[in-house]
Each structure stands twice: as structure tokens, then as C-alpha cells.
Amino acid sequence: MSEPTPVGFNLLWLVPGVVGGTEEATVELLTALAQERPEGLSHRLYALESFAAAHPQVVERYTTRLLPLRGRLKPLRVVAEGTWLANTARRDGIQLLHHLGGTLPPRSTLPAVVTVHDLQPFDLPENFHPAKRIYLHRAVPRAVRKARLVHVHSDFVRRGLLARFSIEPERVRVVPAGVRPLVAPRLTPEELRTRYDLPERWLIYPAITYPHKNHLTLLRAFAGVAAKDPDVALVLTGRPAEGEAAVVGELSRLGLADRVRRTGRVPRQDLLGLVAHAAALTFPSRYEGFGLPVLEAMALGTPVLAADATALVEVVGAAGLLLPPDDADMWTDAMLDAVSGTNRESWARAGRARAEELSWARAASGIAELHRDALTLDDPSTAKVDQ
């Protein structure tokens, strides 16, 4: 029997607590891949020490090389990708390097696969600092050009890549993210109410306050709910970001400070409990490359209200209620229906059925197959990519 082919994952871009839902998706994929033990492949990790400290349960499943950086200074990480990563992976005999962060190191020579999570730097460039925008506008096209295969999580992102860049359609593969079977944590609704000062019913939006997450429409819609129902709260989890000042201002303008709970980032088990016992997950984001939180909510049997925008349409499908992202009145009506509980059981059944279709085991098998295919391909030519 031949030795398995060594394939590496570049995780130097993953600074724990900074990259949002991409961190959770990466951890879940790596966990599932370790459990699947794909035939003919031997996977290794190249990561920051801070990643190992945050996710020891992942690192212990793999042969792992750690870079002694916490990763907060991006220029150091970029330099390390072109030096430490390249040299270490070469010494380890890596035959294919999968870059899960959307870019390739400068002057990368190892055969590569790259995961492009979304095209937000191109579709919504105003959301990015000029320096980061300029960097990504150069780095992403170069990565797409040089990678043997490009992995995306949704048809939405695939269509964007094909429309924007000169890339052969067969080189862009969709392997959706997944969800593992979830059950509500042992935290009871009563414990959550006490811990987070909640009334009997609540709605939840787990999102960092980036502008595209569209918190403002949600707050305006919830003002309509609050005016008609005195015993319901809106829970906003996630850390502050560029849209935070606008969110704080809108809360003050609408007089909702006593009806909206701002928890910040909460422990994973608390978050699952808050979602599982919510009247609905409300997800008005205008832009998503996939939308893992809505899939997790469906796996927990929580009704989902989501924007009919970008990848959310294909992830939610008919298993949740899709709404125009900026129609506050429609959101108000949908949220009032959700807190009434009238249709909860039918939405729960539809959501769980949808979640069963997208498992992390299926995603891991798809990534392994993608790696096998990439190992058989030649590196693409240096065909010109639209900049």
C-alpha cells in the first residue's frame, strides 16, 4: 500500500476571535476531516500559536507546525507565509497546500488550492480600509490565477468569481459548509433569562456590527414589535465593529435601550442556548458568502427569518422565511408572527430537514475529493486575470 500524500492547511491568517464565522467554519471542517480520515491523504496544519491555544482539540488531531506569533500584526503574518510556511512545508514534503484564507503567499511555488469565502472586498469595497482593499484587490486575483483549484462554499460566490475574473469554470468547485447535529444545551430558558436579563420570549441576531450585517433595519423593525408586544426582547451578540456607532445611535433614537440586550461575544454553549430557545433567528444581512448561523439555527429547530440576498437564498431555501433586507415593515410582521409561536413547529421541521442535507461529514468528503483532484492537475497557466 502506498504512503498517503501529505497535504497541508495554511492557517496563518486565522487569528482567533478576529475573523468571525470563518473561524468556526474552519474549526468544524478540520474536526470533521480528522474524523473522516480520507483515504490516500495525510493532512497537516500550519498555524499560529494563538490558534493552538484557542483550539487545542483541533491541533491534537493533526501533525501541526506552530508559528510563535499571536498574529495581530498582519505584515508579519504575510512575511511568514512567504518564508517560514514555504520552507517548513517544503521540508515536510507537502505536495499540496490548501490556503483557507482566500489568498496565496507572495512567490508561492507549492501546488495550491485556495478557499475564497466571498467577494465582499470587490462587491462592497467601501467596507474596507483602503490599504486592505488595495491588498485584496491584488492578492485575490493572483490567488485565483495560481491555484490549481478554487474552493467556494456557495453558487453565489462561484458565479461572482466567474463573472469578475478570467477563470475556467471547471477550476471553481462548490463544497458547501455544513452543520453537525446540534441539540439545545442543558442551559434552561430560565437560566438564560436570569443570566442575560431576558423576558419570556426573545429574538436573536448573532452578528458582529459590520455595516453589511444590516443591524439598523433590524432595529427599526423591532421597534414595531416592541410597540405591539411588551414582553419580547431582541438579543444582539457579537463584538463591535465599524457599524457600532450607528447601531448605538439608532438604539438611542428609537428608545430601545431597555428592550435590546447587547451581550457582546458569549460562550459557545450560551450562544447555542440563546438560539435554540429564541422565538426566531433574525438574519437581515445584505451580504453573505454562505451563512452558517442560519444553518445552525435550523439544526436546532429555531425558525429562521433571513434576507433574500446573496448566498442566504440558497442556504435557507424553503426552510425559512426570506425577506427583503431593507423592508422594515415586512420584518416587523414576520417577527410578530414568530413571537406568537403559531408556526414554530412547521418551521422547525423544515429547518431540521434542511440542516440534515448539509453536514460537516459531507463537506469533509468534498474537500478530500477536491484535494485528490488537485493533486492530479497541472498548475494553471499564467493567463491574465481581470484586476
Plain-language structure description:
The chain is α/β, with parallel strands linked by helices and 387 residues long. The protein has two domains: 5-178 and 360-376, Rossmann fold; 189-357, Rossmann fold (3-Layer(aba) Sandwich), CATH 3.40.50.2000. It contains 16 helices and 13 strands. It has helices at 21-36, 49-54, 56-59, 74-91, 120-123, 130-146, 155-164, 189-196, 215-228, 244-254, 268-276, 292-299, 312-316, 328-340, 344-357, 360-376; strands at residues 5-10, 41-48, 63-67, 96-99, 112-115, 149-152, 172-174, 201-206, 232-237, 260-264, 280-283, 304-307, 321-323. It has a seven-stranded parallel β-sheet, with helices on both faces. Strands 10-9-8-11-12-13 form a six-stranded parallel β-sheet, sandwiched between helices. Helix 1 packs across helix 16, helix 9 (215-228) packs parallel to helix 10 and helix 9 crosses helix 14. The protein starts with a strand and ends in an 11-residue tail after the last helix. Mean pLDDT is 93; it is low at 382-387.
Layout of helices and strands:
Elements: E1 5-10, H1 21-36, E2 41-48, H2 49-54, H3 56-59, E3 63-67, H4 74-91, E4 96-99, E5 112-115, H5 120-123, H6 130-146, E6 149-152, H7 155-164, E7 172-174, H8 189-196, E8 201-206, H9 215-228, E9 232-237, H10 244-254, E10 260-264, H11 268-276, E11 280-283, H12 292-299, E12 304-307, H13 312-316, E13 321-323, H14 328-340, H15 344-357, H16 360-376
Parallel strand pairs: 1-2, 1-4, 2-3, 4-5, 5-6, 6-7, 8-9, 8-11, 9-10, 11-12, 12-13
